[in-house]
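Sequence in, structure out. Go.
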Amino acid sequence: MARLLVVEDRESLRRMLERALTGAGHDVVTADDLPSALEQLAGGPFDLVLTDLQLPSGSGIDVVAESRRRHPETPVVVLTAFGTVAAAVEAMKSGAADFVEKPVDLDTLFTLVRGLTVERAAPEPVFQAPGAPPIVGAHPRLKAALRLLERVAPTDSTVLLTGESGTGKELFARALHALSPRAAGPFVAVNCAAIPETLVETELFGHEKGAFTGADRRRSGRFEMARGGTLFLDEIGELPLAVQAKVLRVLDDRGYERVGGGETLRADARVVAATNRELAAMVAAGTFRSDLLFRLEIFPIALPSLADRPGDLPLLVAHLAAGIAGRHGVAPPELTADALA
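Output:
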């Protein structure tokens, strides 16, 4: 049995959730507005918090923030009306564990509550999508990001992965591809920061024979190579403004031309982009297009840094040590507390 806090201002829905969750064996406490929710959070820890996003005198995001401040290990699930999934994603960026759309499907809610309360007690340390590298960690923020990944992977939605260098953005991109309907197609990765500015356009869109000096044959670009699969644009914040406009066009209507060509081609690739930069600040500085950011942020996933989840360090060290030992045909080393200190 788990102790749950349900925050919902609409009385009929609040009572329905209370009855349903109590009937499922949980101890349920309710609140009907932000002040009473904050009062309940101050009174003691819960195993899970379920809150509406729209509350009198405040927001469900305030409940998320206060729960994280007082009880950072407690998962928070937000209830969101149909058509406001973007707001729920913002709540997850603030620390919510997941979201449920209204009208609430009780079977879905029961499964989510059971999964989050069991996960909190014994979190699974390795996430493995078929055919993709494993993602190692048990921190709640990493698990929240993985739940977002699982929600968006079956769609064809553009995804923007954000986080510091080394947070595993390419691992997430590969897992998104592996869990998508495009998994049988190619996964094409492009490091936008590693391509000279003069070559970025031809790298992405290809060129025709004779398009420039040395172009002795037609060359396919990465969008063409990724046909039927996923194109991963790593460090997209490094793209020149002129190329950003062409990427925006692909996201808008799927059309593009090879450099030196007049034929409009149709892109058939899901785009997953990643950056370690603050794109909103770049928009304000005039170095990144606001309309491109709007198109990329259809489904953002923020990845926590290892500094934010130090408890995952032993898991990562053990995983990497086991992998190295396996490649060399030796037994994994025993990691002492002193070695991990």
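Check: The chain has a mean pLDDT of 90. The radius of gyration is 23 Å.
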